[in-house]
Protein: P2Y purinoceptor 4
Organism: Hipposideros armiger
Amino acid sequence: MASAESSLLTTLGPSPDPGKSEVELDCWFNEEFKFILLPVSYAVVFVLGLGLNAPTLWLFLFHLRPWDATATYMFHLALSDTLYVLSLPTLVYYYAARNHWPFGTGLCKFTRFLFYWNLYCSVLFLTCISVHRYMGICHPLRALRWGRPRFAGLLCLAVWLVVASCLVPNLFFVTTSTRGDTILCHDTTRPEDFDHYVHFSSVIMVLLFGVPCLVTLVCYGLMARRLYRPLPGAAPPSSRLRSLRTIAVVLTVFAVCFVPFHITRTIYYMARLLEADCQVLNIVNVVYKVTRPLASANSCLDPVLYLLTGDKYRRHLWQLCSGGAPQRPMAASSLALVSLRGNSSCRWTDTHLGQQAATLEACNGEERG
């Protein structure tokens, strides 16, 4: 199979206007909109993302220790978001300068790599949180075994390494090219390698987005069913409502940030592979470019999850913002989504994962009784 982008670009040549990066002899991509949309949106994500995630890291490191499993996942999620937003000033400059990249090929490769590393690490960390909460609500005994902070830390390390390993080919695909006085930093690859890049990108999307998204949907569907089921001794309506809000936030991140980006990117790649009509290509190109900032916006939406799931996090954040006196570090427990009634003699959170299973059996029997 001949290279799709190569065949598509046999009639595509360098544009006399560097603002139009890919131009057919009788089909010009009008991308003027992105030189306003992308710098502004990336600048907003940088300011909000750094402003929200930097204090989060500080709180997790110095005021919310020791961590439980959920706090471990959230810390790594905040770390991933922070690393990504620190790379955004280079993209703000690149698009504000109308596709001119003066920072070298190495930094171009790393910046594009960091986008997808953050994207898929965020997906997997949110999936870890979803599975952890599902276990805590629907299978509390198993949560004692698999919900320990040490296991969560090892799983987070595995996420970092697995995603980075899967994205190593991206470092070879992404490159720069010169067009007149303009240096382009390609988001995909050279025209002659485009079909290979699409195959690689499709496999990565299925493994690092499709499967985790399905797992998250299944977990939250089962969680919602359990939370809505009126069981004796189960969590009061207010606690169940907080849990359902957490479900809503994670699903919103997927629906707003991840799903539109992957759908429009797939359509865009397929349209180029199949050499679609010029008008179709322009429409698909615009829609795809519009959803790119949405994928970056997860760095701003993720901190909402911390606010909804951790009472200690909210309290310490409020003290930080109001200039109150810092308190000694406290355990950051947030798994206790299904609490027992106030007069129950058996209470548990994942801060005490080492307690005996027999005690939990007694508690669960009391809940069901």
